[in-house]
Amino acid sequence: WTASTRRSGVRASTAGCTGATCSWHPRTSSRPTWSAARSSGTIPPRFRDARFDTFAERTPSLKKAKTTVVHFARVYPAVDGGVFLVGPEGVGKTHLATALLNVLGERGFPGLYFDYRELLGQLRSSFDKESGPSSLEVLEPILTAALVVLDGVGDETPTDWVNDTLARIVGTWR
Predict the structure, then answer these.
(1) With the CA atoms of 94, 52, 41 and 80 taken in that order, what torsion angle do they form, in degrees rounded to the nearest 10?
(2) If you write DSSP's letter for every residue of the chain in order, what string do you get?
(3) CB of 23 within 8 A of CB of 82?
(4) What's the angle, vertex CA 59, arms to CA 54 and CA 64, rounded to 5?
């Protein structure tokens, strides 16, 4: 599943995953309870109650993106890959991503939400051995979760280290 950018919003289609602003990926692993995942506080407060029925389909591309994500939710966990949404700021990628987490969490498939910029900040901090967790400890929840939303991928300047970090995360899901 992938989504491609259009000026008027997000355009989604089914194909191989190639790049993302938001991404989800199914994995087989032990799952935390949905209440624990939801109460972790990582989803921004304004999106904690996001639903598909409250998503504004302002353009045909946004309607297609919603249709793609709703279909993914309906067939999950019988999916072969993830979903990536790419588009301009403010079109609804985070709303769709967190709505997916909410719907699947209620069905017994809890997931994790991460702001990619904050994740990179935590990883940078891990280089100082005395400041806290190691990079492996920072990445462990993402690499072992059954369902992950990475929000804001692409908002960070694409240095070699940023690209390598994303490749490590996405490569684990293959």
Answers:
(1) -70
(2) -EEEEETTEEEEE-S-----SEEE----S----HHHHHTTS-S-GGGTT--GGG----SHHHHHHHHHHHHHHHHTTS-SS-EEE---TTSSHHHHHHHHHHHHHHTT---EEEEHHHHHHHHHHTTSTTSS--HHHHHHHHHH-SSEEEE-TTSS---HHHHHHHHHHHHHT-
(3) yes
(4) 75
Q: What confidence tens digit (pLDDT) does each residue in 78-96 have?
A: 988 888 899 999 999 999 9
pLDDT in tens, 47-57: 999 999 999 99
Q: Give the strand pairing for 9-13 and 148-151.
A: unpaired
Residue whose pair of structure tokens reads 């996405």 in the numeric block: 170
d(CA 162, CA 174): 19
